């Protein structure tokens, strides 16, 4: 073998080895397929399938910041003692809230299986005439945690005495004259005929214990709520009746909603209840001016009314109004302007007025809210980001 042949052979061998190594360097393993979130549009916007299941999940909530001022009875103001001179004075009523919500939905052979939860966390001062009224973390609250299969719902909800007929107006302080209590465990059944007619029957536990008012049942007999509704394009007519098993009292409400135009909607609601047994005897005296309030008939006297409406100036701005009153001459007016600055962010400015008919008596108004005037005025500015 001559020198030329040897060099050519060596060069060929080097090229072959180099090529093999280069091929080895760029060889990579096949990527594993990624499992992306799949959108679920069966139950509305925001749902997605939980990977590996047939369950659709939506996560949402809101962050809210309230700034209130005014008389305490208006629900908007607060008072405290000056730390330097001890003088009782007005103070801002502020509260920040974070609310987390979850929804799930799944189709089954027995109907749609749904769940809903809502938990709230608050930081702020209290709406009361306190010696020290500093901002603090408040107890978290579980406001909703229910399961529904078809028309059957069980769990933590708000009373059908309010949810089925409606929460009165689109104002922040819609309970200046209260229209019923809220938190309760329920076993209820909804029926929807599909032609505008619907109905509900709800067995409820109530909430609260001790003091001047007992809201929870004190035996195995539950509170009972039943309601019927007829809905059409012009609006709706709704009626609910409730039996408080603790006090053995009855209450009812009837409501009419009217879609006057695409911009204007109105409502009127009336309530009536008995109070033969719910006057409070604390062992020493009977508080006759407590007006027999129970879990459902929260207003004073036998009857009460609520009326109001919403007018939409445009897609971003709406005006809301509510007036209310009861037999004990308690009256309230609440009005606000709600402005959606950008989708998901709303600023609401509200003015509230209260008149307390039994200001000097031991009533829920004077005791629970710390009302310090017979006529109270306040205002509230709310910033809310929904997601």
Automatic annotation (TrEMBL):
| Subcellular compartments | Cell outer membrane
Which Pfam families does this UniProt record tie to the protein?
A: Porin_2
Which GO CC annotations does the UniProt entry carry?
cell outer membrane; pore complex
Query: Which GO molecular function annotations are given, in alphabetical order?
Result: porin activity
Q: Which GO terms describe its biological process?
A: monoatomic ion transport
Q: Which family does it belong to?
A: Belongs to the alphaproteobacteria porin family.
Q: Name it.
A: Porin
